[in-house]
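sry for the spam today, last one i promise. struct tokens for design, 62 residues
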């Protein structure tokens, strides 16, 4: 079973906290927004969800 990180672009404020906290470098900043460029590496630890103040990130099990 894997995990799928989803970023709501409308909520993302571009703070880069998720980029900094992710232990497996799932996220990358593109045009001022966080993008899960390595989603297949997601461990489902939800560190990104915890640091995202506007609640722009969700993790779904796949």
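last one done:
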């Amino acid at each position: 079973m894997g995990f799928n990180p989803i970023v709501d672009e409308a909520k993302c404020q571009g703070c880069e906290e998720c980029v900094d906290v992710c232990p497996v470098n799932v996220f990358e900043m593109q045009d001022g927004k966080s993008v899960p460029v390595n989603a297949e590496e997601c461990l489902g630890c939800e560190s990104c969800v915890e640091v995202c103040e506007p609640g722009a990130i969700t993790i779904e099990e796949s």
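The two ends are 6 Å apart (CA to CA). ok im logging off now
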